[in-house]
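Here's what a typical entry looks like (D-lactate dehydrogenase (cytochrome)):
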Amino acid sequence: MLFKTSMNRTIAGGYATFNYLKQNPPNDFFPASASTPLKDLTSSPRYAKEPEVKLAIAEMATFLKPDQMTNSEGELYNHSSNSSTFHKPNDTERPYVIAYPHDTQEVAEIVKICNKYRIPMVPYSGGTSIEGHFIPTRRGVCIDVSRMDKILALHEDDLDVVVQPGVGWQDLGAYLDPYGLMFGPDPGPGACIGGMVATNCSGTRASRYGTMKDNVIALTVVLSDGTIIKTKNRPRKSSAGYNLTGLFVGSEGTLGIIVEATLKLTVKPEKEVVAVVNFNSLGEAAKTVTDIFKKGIAVNAVELMDDRQMKCIKEMTDDVHGGRKWSDKNLLLFKLGGVSNTVLKDQINIVSSICKKNGGFNIEIAESEADKEAIWSVRKTQLWTSIDWAKKIMPNARAWPTDVAVPVSKLPKLIAETVEDIESNGLMTTVVGHVGDGNIHALVIFPPEQIDVAEKVVKNMVKRAIENEGTVSGEHGVGIGKRDFLEMELGEEAVNVMRRLKLSLDSKMLFNPDKIFKIDPNEDRVDNY
C-alpha cells in the first residue's frame, strides 16, 4: 500500500511538472529571441576529458586502419599551424589525434563518436589558411580530409564537376585542361576544395569568375551528430527550399564537415594574353580599372602591385622572370581573353586606350605561353619575394600578411592611409590587390621587438576598411584573427544570429570551436604571435 501511494505521488508530481513546463518552457530549451548574444550562454561548453578521448580513439580504431590515425608530435604541430599564418597555437593547443578518413561514411562515423563523447573536431584539408582557422583551441580530434582527393564525376555538357574535399584546385585545373575547361577560383598554391569552400576564398580571377560562393552548386555535408545531407541537386538554378549550400560556404568548419562538392566550370578562353602597365599613382590605376569595367570589358583578371612591391621585385628577381627589367612604379597586370583573335584585339585596343588616357605607360602585351607565365609568376610568387627582400634588409624580420576589401573607388585612399600608418610607425610594407573587386593584401614587415606595433597597424587597417564601407576579409576568412572585428562590420545582432545558427546545428559546440565568433562567455584566450 505504501509503495502504491508513493507511486501515485510520483505520477502526480510528474504530471504537475509536465504541465508547469508546458505553460512555462525554459528559455534554455526554447529561446524566445531569434538570436543568441554571448551573455546568454551562461557557462562554458563542456568537452571530454582525456580518459573519454582515449575511449573514443579506441572506438575509431575499430574501423580506421593504423595509418589513418596518428598522434606524432610533428604531425600534431603541423595540423595546428603553418608557415603562412601569423596566428600560432599556444603550447597546449594541439589535437589529441589526427584522423584521416577515406570516404564520407568514415567521416560520419568519426563525427558520431566525437558527438557521443563531446569531443571537439577541427576539419583540415590543404592547411594553407591565414587567419588561424585550424588552431585546435579546445584540443579534440583533427579530421584531415586530404586523402579524400578523388574527382568523382565530370559532366562536360553541364559544365560541372563533383569532387571530394581533398582535391587541390591546381590538380583540378590540370585534370580539366585537356577538356578545354577550368574552375574559376585560383587562391594560393596548395589550397584544397574543402578549405576553399569553408573560407569562401577566391583569387586573381574573382572579378570575372566570382568567389567560391558563385562557383559551388551543391555540397554534401556531415552534421554534428553524423547525419549526412546533400544541400541540393545539380541544376544551376533551384528555388526549392532554403539555400543550404550558401549556409555552409564560408562557415569555416563551424557548422559541418564538407565531404563532397559539385562545382561550376567554365570554358577556357580560346585566346588569352597578359598585359602590364605602369602608373605614377594608385588613383590613376584604380580609375583605369573602373573605366574598363564601365566599358563592359570583362577582363579575365586584373591585379595591382604598388610601388613598394615593385621596388622589392626589381631588387630581388635578378631578371629571373623572363629576363625582363621591372619598373619600380605602381603596376596593373591584366589577363585579357576572347573567343577569337578579333575579339581579343578589340579588347587590347580598348584597354590600352583607357590606360593611356589615365596616365599609364610602359604598356606591354605578352602572347607566348613562356612570356605570359614569366610575367604572371611575379604576382603569384610576390609573397615569398617580399619575405626574402625583408630578410635581406633585416635578417630577423617577421612578416604579417592580412587582407581586407572595400569598394574599388575607395581603394586608393585605403592603401595610401594604410601605408602612411605603417611607415610612420617605423615598419615596412608591400601591397598587392585583386583590384577588380577592391580586395587588397598588405604584408607588414617588422623586427620581432616591435610585434605590438605591428599588431596595432594591422588592426588599424581592418578598422579603416570597415570605416570605408568594406569588410574585414575579402577572401581569407575570419578564423581567430579577425573575429573581434566582425561585430564592428556587421553589428552585434547579425553575429548573434550566426551564433544561434551555430547552436541549432551544433548544440554541443563541437565543430571548430571559437572561430568566427566567441561561443564561451568565460574565454580568456590570448592570441599567440
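The chain is about 35% helix and 20% strand.

More examples are in the samples folder.
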